[in-house]
Amino acid sequence: MNVVPKILPTIQRDLLILEKNLQKMISAKHPILYAAAEHLFSAGGKRIRPTIILLIALSTTKNLNILPEHKRLAEITEIIHTASLVHDDVIDECATRRGVNTVHNKFSTKVAVLAGDFLFAQSSWYLANLNNLEVVKNISKVITDFAEGEVRQSLTCFDGDISMDKYIEKSFYKTASLIASSSKAAAIISETSPKTQNQFYLYGKHLGLAFQIVDDILDIIGSPVSLGKPAGLDLKNGNLTAPLLFAAQENSTVYSLIAREFEQENDIPKTIEIIKNSNAIQKSYDLAQEHIQASIQAINKINNNLARESLSYINNYVIKRLN
């Protein structure tokens, strides 16, 4: 679903240009690497992260003037996000993404890993060329956070003792870090005050956490079409998310299913049924709403009506994905 027409027509042209620029920016000498990267970009996506950056840029610059550096940051952010998806799909052994074969499925695992590395390297090069040390510091930390998140997720696979706090921490590293840091980076480029920059960071952090929680709910109740990947994948890979953790608190049977790693034929359908018959989905939704409210509070502390108005559309979109 494309959220742009419903948000702010002003940035629609910039997002169309972004699509074309992404293709140019991933050009590589090796045809396989280029084909692998282009394959994923051609599948499209919601482009939520670039949209947020452009909206922040629009609301924090003089005369509603989005700077070239903002546009390049939006492109860099999407490349970093895409690189993380390539690696995620390899680790999760995911066969499809956004309705098309994943890179490792279409080419090979080796090519997918190299394509992900290539995209990270490309994003780092373009990031350095922004010639803004504060932005470089903010965004480069995200790549470290991705690795941290993957390691933490791997270490807690099928770990029934994982706490909700650890789940939120892992969700920050895997999803919220990029949205938080790029939101702050957009405000840095606009030369806003450090206080305003930090409020945009908090906005992105809580929005990112809400986005991940909603994603995890959809993994249980969504269809492969709405998800862009197979449903129930988190359970299969031992990624214990909010709906599962809340369900386990109500029904101890869940712990025994986790302990045997859902290895029996009907374990995953059985677990999904337990989750749906408990209060876990509602509790997860409430948790997502808490973070949506926290993101709104962060934006409300900024004296900028345009930012509040335009970014509220993103908040509504994130939570309404469940409708």
Automatic annotation (TrEMBL):
One of its GO terms (molecular function) is prenyltransferase activity. SUPFAM superfamilies: Terpenoid synthases (SSF48576). GO terms for biological process: isoprenoid biosynthetic process; quinone biosynthetic process. It holds the Pfam family polyprenyl_synt. Its cofactor is Mg(2+). Keywords: Chloroplast, Isoprene biosynthesis, Magnesium, Metal-binding, Plastid, Transferase. Belongs to the FPP/GGPP synthase family. This is PreA.
